[in-house]
Amino acid sequence: MTRFVGRISAASSDKKGEKSGKKWWHNAVVYQIYPRSFMDSNGDGIGDINGIISKLDYLQQLGINLIWLSPVYRSPMDDNGYDISDYEDIAAEFGSMAQMESLIAQAKQRDIHILMDLVVNHTSDEHPWFIEALKSKDNPYRDYYIWRKPAADGGQPNDFHSYFGGSGWAFDEASGEYYLHQFSVRQPDLNWENPRVHGEVHAMMNRWLAKGIGGFRMDVIDLIGKEVDAQIMANGKNLHALIRQMNRATFGKGDAVTVGEAWSATPADALLYSGVEREELSMVFQFDHIKQFWDEHAGKWRSKPFELASFKAVIEKWQTALAHQGWNSLFWSNHDLPRAVSKFGDEGEFRVASAKMLATALHCLKGTPYIYQGEEIGMTNVRYETIDEYRDIESLNLYQERLAEGVSHEEMMQGIHANGRDNARTPMQWDDSPNAGFTTGTPWITVNPNYREINVAAALAEPDSILWHYQKLVALRKQYPVLVYGDFQPVLREHPQVFAWLRALDSERLLVINNFTAEHLTLDIPHQMQNWHGECLISNYAPRDRLAVSIELQPYESFALLIGR
Ligand code: TEU
Ligand code: CA
Fold first, then answer.
1. Is the pTM higher than 0.90?
2. Is the pLDDT of residue 565 over 60?
3. Ligand 1 — pocket residues by CB below 6 A?
4. Which ligand 1 atom is the nearest neighbour of the CA of 183?
């Protein structure tokens, strides 16, 4: 297997590559770890850093070179770590700084670089900055946060609503003022109009970079430039200036990887964030292919059925818009989203075939692929019977809020089953022993009962498993530059069940065909492609190395054919 060109050597080509815009990480695949649910090493039912270290050989075998590590910092865990009380200390339940430094070192020995989660739109209300800020209006830390006087009627300054339900303003009795929180009441927003906040965050980031991390995933980065009084939360006028300032003060000096979470991003925004000359980020997470299946009114709590035509249109839009400028991130799921095979594939008879199709489709697009823990074995959504089994603050808060507004229990449970964040947070399924080998204790959230069938041990033992399919895709990315730099050219655009495209680089052409349905299909091949033949790089059924007038596709059949070799 082609060894991944370690960062050091790539760096030299990087300098040369710079001019060509090539980056050391362009042929890398990222694996996202949600530490609370990945691996528990001490039996307290909560995943931890030593648990992650114990699985580094597994990740090296998969071939990934970057780990996006969701937060492990000190936190009261109101939002499972996305509420940080100390950016430079590790939550006791996850381990210690020494263990974190060991994880960074041991990962690097395996050519794996850690992306830390940077959560600086807000802190925890237990962060010393906020505790100081609460002490008095003229406390030097008061202006680290966003305070407003009550409205004329003595109520909240405006009707801004928190993403986690209720008002986005919380009243502080002591000062008679309200503070802003876009997420939970225990996640007060930082004031990014305050240069002292800039300095604090930049210094913290540089101290983490000095520990040898590979870069940052940036939480809701599109919200830090907010213009509160104008109720412009995303894409505020200072946003890009703030990101460029952050780039120049911290990661821009090296060749760290940075990916910004930007729910509001359009292709034009993405070009601002990730344009080579922009000195901002490497790429952003945009969510058009997620939001398109949310109900206009009920949002994620009422799912719209998957519909391929609009899905293809969104993916094609982003592939085309960032073809020569900017860089796409590629993902089907993460720790906030439902499982990929449940959302876009088939959990039943065709779970394996559809999971492999989704993997091939994602990894054959142009951009950086992200694998969310468990996706590589086809883990599915969970359907806990009662709301009491749920742990996610967003689901629990919105369940209460919507029921109070008259939505039925049944409808909200349906919404939570379809799009709730706990779907992604059930323990990683390592084997068929009790609690899926995740813990010898009582897991913090119930293991998905299908772990006896769906687990890593079974996948490793099955040569034709989803896991080995992912391993092959990760390896192909290092062998075939057309997969990394090939232009995206849609084909069969009007086909209602098949999503197909070409990737073209110099004389190389890779044809990718995916049946997104459980149907057997007769696919008529366009005239100019009928005698195409070559090397089938990957498929989830019998390899296909030549086309014809038409081909019979199996349910969820997917293959990538390197033409003319
Ligand atoms: O997510 C931003 C965000 O808006 C999602 O939390 C939320 O799920 C939304 O409803 C989309 O479904 C980021 C983190 O990824 C998330 O885990 C945190 O809870 C949130 O920010 C606050 O830090
Ligand atoms: Ca533990």
1. yes
2. no
3. 79, 82, 119, 163, 183, 219-220, 261, 263, 300, 335-336, 394, 421
4. 22
- In this structure, the residue with its CA closest to atom 10 of ligand 1 is 163
| Strands of the sheet with 177-180, listed across from one edge | 147-148, 177-180, 169-172
Probe target for ligand 1 pocket from 220, 222, 285, with the most ligand atoms within 8 Å of CB: 220
Q: Write down the pLDDT at residue 4.
A: 37
CA of 378 to the centre of ligand 1 (A): 23
**559 touches 551 (CB < 8 A):** no
Tell me which residue has its CA closest to atom 20 in ligand 1: 82
What is the band of 276 on the pLDDT scale with cuts at 50, 70, 90?
confident
pLDDT at 302 over 90: yes
Contact of 340 with 356, CB cutoff 8 Å = no
- Is 126 designated active site? no
Count of beta carbons in the 10 Å neighbourhood of residue 218: 27
Is the pLDDT reported for residue 10 higher than 70?
A: no
> How far is residue 565's CA from residue 563's CA, in Å, rounded to a whole number?
6
Residue 316 makes CB contacts below 8 A (sequence gap 6+) with: 488, 490, 493, 501
Query: 499-530 b/e with 16+ CB inside 10 Å = b?
Result: bbbbbbeeebbbbbbbbbbbeebebebeeebe
| Residue 219 is a catalytic residue | yes
Catalytic one of 93, 117, 219, 336: 219
Give the model confidence (pLDDT) of 41-96 as tens digits. 999 999 999 999 999 999 999 999 999 999 999 999 999 999 999 999 999 999 99
557 vs 537: CA distance, rounded Å: 14
Sequence-ordered list of residues with C-beta below 8 angstroms from that of 525, at least 6 positions apart, any chain: 547, 548, 549, 550, 551
* Mean pLDDT calculated for residue range 439-448: 98
pLDDT surpassing 70 at residue 15: no
Which of 79, 87, 163, 181 best tests ligand 1's pocket when mutated (most atoms within 8 Å of CB)? 163
Q: Is residue 205 within 8 Å of residue 248, measured between CB atoms?
A: no
CA of 336 to the centre of ligand 1 (A): 6
Amino acid in the structure at residue 56: L
Is the per-residue pLDDT at 503 higher than 80?
yes
| Contact (CB, 8 A) for 170 and 176 | no
Ligand 2 mean position, distance from CA 41 (Å): 5
**Structural tokens at position 247:** 């780039």
Per-residue pLDDT reduced to its tens digit, 229-261: 999 999 999 999 999 999 999 999 999 999 999
Which bound ligand lies closest to the C-alpha atom of 438?
A: 2
Q: Are 358 and 341 in contact (CB under 8 A)?
A: yes
Separation of 361 CA from ligand 2 center, angstroms? 35
Task: Point out the ligand nearest to the CA of residue 42.
Answer: 2
In the chain, how long is the greatest CA-to-CA distance?
Answer: 77
Q: What are the residues facing 498 on neighbouring strands?
A: 515
Residues with CB under 5 A from ligand 2 (ion): 40, 42, 44, 46, 48
CA of 29 to the centre of ligand 1 (A): 23
Q: What ligand 1 atom has the least distance to the C-alpha of 287?
A: 11
Atom 23, ligand 1: residue with shortest CA distance: 82
